[in-house]
Amino acid sequence: MNSNLLDSVILQTDFPDLRLHASGKVRDVYQLDEDRLLFVATDRISAFDYVLATGIPHKGRVLSQISLFWFDFLGDIVPNHVLTADVERYPEALQKYADQLRGRSMIVQRAEMFPVECVVRGYISGSAWKEYQASGKVCGIDLPSGLRESDAFPEPIFTPATKAVSGHDENIPFSRMCEIVGTESASHLRDLTLRIYKKAAAYARQRGIIIADTKFEFGRTAQGITLADEVLTPDSSRFWPADKYTPGSPQESYDKQYVRDYLEQIRWNKQPPAPALPTEVASGTSEKYLDAYLQITGRKLDV
């Protein structure tokens, strides 16, 4: 991958006649009308809570296409908010942006979102590992002694978090989630999250990927509780290559660990401005995302 490819990276969307509804670390969301939103995944990448100056080629398209794959795969368990991702079926007003939107966007049903992240962990890693080392628990859940880093839990555990506008989401006990959304909704979301994870994790394992943990977002629409936002992507999940899995240490992954490792290597102080990435780091990260897409879907992204 050469530096010319970096010129095709989309860091900002520019649709001046559309109303910007929200802009996150990766996605820009536009309001089409009272009922529909346009989601556009850019090639931005964040690390340590800051968006970096360099984008990752094809990243937004990978995130969108993987999410669409999972929305379809999980349709027998839970409805989702996607109305269409076919640019040819978009409203006439969007057709002049077709080249920018193709492959990295979707029109979705607007939902009343639950103000919690539904996190499920099948393996102990990241913040869960640190918490377990300190207390023997994760989000208030008692766990067996003697677990090693990256070990599988006896059963997947549900560890909800609050949504942070900036910075890190905060892990909360299930009892706190019940206070926020109500016991009935919290119980339903927990059970739904675990069902989704178990089905997806079993499929991914057949494809050579371990889904160590992931997070889902849900909302309410006319269909009832609906799966929304992104689903089981390398940004929202920890994907490990199954053939290299060795518990007792951190695992190689398909996510942005490549970028984090570089930033640690250059001793960035994790304060703005966020640095740019060398071409080889952006390219290497792009290959990780493309490989994840291939492993999950069984087909190469058309680049």
Please explain how this structure is put together.
This protein has 2 domains: 1-110, Phosphorylase Kinase, domain 1; 113-244, D-amino Acid Aminotransferase, Chain A, domain 1, CATH 3.30.470. It contains 8 helices and 17 strands. Helix 5 crosses helix 6. With 303 residues, it is of the alpha+beta class. Strand 2 (27-31) and strand 3 (36-41) form a beta hairpin.
Into which percentage range does the β-strand content fall?
25-35%
Largest sheet: 8 strands, antiparallel
CATH topology of the largest domain: D-amino Acid Aminotransferase, Chain A, domain 1
Q: Could you say which structural class the secondary elements and strand pairing correspond to?
A: alpha+beta
Compact overview of the structure:
This protein has 303 residues and is an alpha+beta fold. Helices cover 31% and strands 25% of the residues.
Helix-strand layout with pairing:
Blueprint: H1 3-6, E1 19-23, E2 27-31, E3 36-41, E4 46-47, E5 50-51, H2 59-73, E6 82-84, H3 98-101, E7 105-109, E8 112-113, E9 116-123, H4 126-135, E10 137-138, E11 141-142, E12 152-158, E13 161-162, E14 170-171, H5 174-181, H6 183-206, E15 209-221, E16 224-228, E17 237-241, H7 257-265, H8 279-297
Antiparallel strand pairs: 1-2, 2-3, 3-7, 4-5, 6-7, 8-15, 9-12, 9-13, 9-15, 10-11, 13-14, 15-16, 15-17
Helix pairs in contact: 2-8, 5-6, 7-8
